[in-house]
Write a structure and sequence with these properties.
heterodimer; A: 95 residues; mainly alpha; elongated; B: 11 helices; 4 strands; 3% strand
Chain lengths: 95, 294
């Protein structure tokens, strides 16, 4: 269990969440959405590009959301919230 | 109702929602009369509808999904009065054209913010102090942009919250109830949408959003705190709050903050305020980055 204060860890998580949000917005709206089919492409090619952009944006969104699950689970693990305290771990000597 | 976190569980007045709603109606109507702006009218109507849902919740205790469903109605004034711009601004990206998707986002955004505020209304002074801090980056952004109508509305929310905080802080003399917290959340969401500060608001609300996300993802859905099978936080013999160390207990921000050891209620609330102050700084940074085009 880490000795880093919970507030500091949560500030770190918030900063990461903020950076990931900005990065996700940039990747989706600046890199994926502007992708366009070559001029004069057939309807099927245009549709293929649209589906590809949707899948890519969905994948980025899923990775972004999954990163939040990871941060939650990482905090629970490093702070030992998932471990039930035992008498021996509380420092008491058995009578 | 009894204050469950205090020795002897002293009775505390509830709900304070009507006082909050009354103060907001008076101040927003004053801005409307002076400016004639439909923006403040939409803001006031959104708040009133969310407040009405909250009053019903205070009396009948609605389930999570029903509450969210009813709160969709609170978004309607913004859509019907067309007091939104479907061209939101994002950092490094600039203006986006979301004419089809944006009205759907408006419909979802107000219930989301209202519920996020409702979910952090767990300790004396928390939701009122949290709102007062969270509204500061919006007020800053409106003033810098020269949007004095929205700045006045943000100031009305700030002053209402500061007044209410004096009675709500530890030891509380009044609780806002669902009518108060839902009205506050809806007003905040409407302020962000109508003022075109959606991303700034999302960042300013990161602690509340992360709390909602962590709770929903660990409990497996929208569950009222009364209906949670395992408690995230318990009160020990010294009337201090401590995190429940058990697999499967809901992961709330309060439980995370208490992972260092037991704390008094006022100390937990101070830590929440530290997180919210940091999120507000990130929100100001986001606003400044909105001028940067990729």
């Amino acid at each position: 269990m880490t000795r880093v204060p919970a507030v500091l860890l949560l500030i770190g998580i918030m900063t990461a969440a903020w950076a990931l949000l900005i990065l996700m917005i940039f990747v989706v709206f600046e890199l994926i959405i502007p992708i366009s089919a070559p001029s004069g492409a057939s309807y099927a090619v245009e549709l293929g590009y649209a589906v590809l952009k949707l899948v890519m944006a969905g994948a980025v969104g899923a990775v972004w959301l999954y990163s939040y699950f990871l941060m939650r689970d990482m905090f629970v693990r490093v702070k030992g919230l998932d471990r039930t305290p035992t008498p021996s771990s509380s420092g008491r000597t058995p009578s | 109702m009894p204050d469950a976190h205090k020795q002897g569980q002293p009775p505390v007045a509830r709900p304070g929602g009507p006082a909050i709603a009354f103060a907001l109606i008076i101040s927003l109507d004053a801005v409307y009369v002076i400016t004639g702006s439909p923006q403040t009218l939409a803001l006031a109507l959104t708040m009133v509808i969310a407040f009405a849902v909250g009053v019903y919740d205070d009396m009948r205790s609605l389930s999570g999904p029903v509450k969210v469903g009813m709160l969709f109605a609170a978004s309607l004034p913004i859509l019907l009065l067309h007091t939104y711009s479907p061209f939101p601004v994002f950092p490094f990206v600039g203006h986006l054209r979301l004419t089809v998707v944006y009205p759907l986002l408006v419909l979802v955004a107000v219930p989301v913010t209202a519920n996020a505020f409702n979910m952090i209304d767990v300790y004396n002074g928390l939701v009122s102090g949290f709102t007062a801090i969270a509204v500061l980056p919006l007020l800053f952004a409106f003033l810098v942009q020269g949007d004095y109508v929205m700045a006045s509305a943000a100031l009305a929310l700030l002053l209402t919250m500061l007044g209410f905080y004096l009675l709500h802080r530890n030891p509380a003399k009044i609780f806002p109830g669902d009518s108060g917290s839902l009205a506050l959340g809806a007003t905040y969401g409407a302020l962000a949408i109508i003022g075109g500060m959606e991303v700034v608001a999302v960042v300013a609300l990161l602690p509340a959003i992360l709390n909602a996300f962590f709770v929903i993802s660990s409990v497996g859905g929208l569950v009222e705190h009364r209906q949670m099978k395992k408690r995230p936080v318990a009160l020990n013999g010294q009337f201090k709050l401590e995190a429940v160390r058990e697999p499967g207990a809901p992961v709330t921000l309060a439980r995370m903050l208490l992972s260092d050891g037991p704390l008094g209620e006022a100390a937990v609330v101070r830590r929440f305020f530290v997180l919210e102050a940091f999120a507000s700084l990130l929100a100001v940074a986001t606003f400044l980055l909105m001028g940067v085009r990729g």
